[in-house]
Amino acid sequence: MSTTPADPSIADLLRQLVDDGNHLVRTEIRLAKAELRDNVASAAKGAAGIGLGAVLLLGAVFTLLGAAVAFLTPVVGAGWAAVIVGVAALVIGGGLIMSGVNKLKVSSLAPDRTVKSVKHDAQTISGSIR
C-alpha cells in the first residue's frame, strides 16, 4: 500500500490561499512600518540640521554686527577678520539648512520599498491567475 498524501481539497486550497494572503498583508504592513520609522528618523536628522544651521546663522548675524562695530574702530584688520568669520558661518549655516530641508521633503518620507514590493506582489498574483 502506498503512503502518498491525498490531494488537498478545494476548501483546503482556498483556506491556504486566504492564510497566505493574510500573511502577505501582515508582512507588507510590518515592512511599511519599518520603512516609515527609518524615514521619520531621517527627517529628524534633517530637523536637527536645520536647528544647527539656525544657531550658526544667528551667530553669523552677531558676528557681522560685531564686524560692523569693528569697522568703526581704527583697527581695520580686526574688522576684516570678523567679516570673514561671519561670512563663513553664513555659508555653513545656510548649507546645513538646505541639507535639512532636502531631507524633510514629503517624498522622502514615502515608503518606496514597500510600494515596489506591493506592486511586485500584485503583478505576481495577477500573473499566476491568468
Q: What is the count of DSSP helices, taking H or I runs of 4+ residues?
A: 3
Strand % is under 5%
- Which structural class do you get from the secondary structure elements? mainly alpha
List the uncertain runs: none
Helix and strand sequence:
HHH
Helix content: over 70%
Whole-number radius of gyration? 30 Å
Q: Separation of termini?
A: 38 Å
Largest sheet: none
Q: What is the molecular shape?
A: rod-shaped
Mean pLDDT: 80
Instruction: List how many beta strands DSSP finds.
Output: 0
Overall description:
This protein has a domain at 55-103. The protein contains 3 helices and no strands. The protein has helices at residues 10-71, 76-103, 112-129. The radius of gyration is 30 Å and the shape is rod-shaped.
List key phrases describing it.
mainly alpha, 3 helices, 0% strand, 130 residues, 83% helix
Sum this structure up briefly.
The protein has 130 residues and is an all-alpha fold. It has helices at 10-71, 76-103, 112-129.
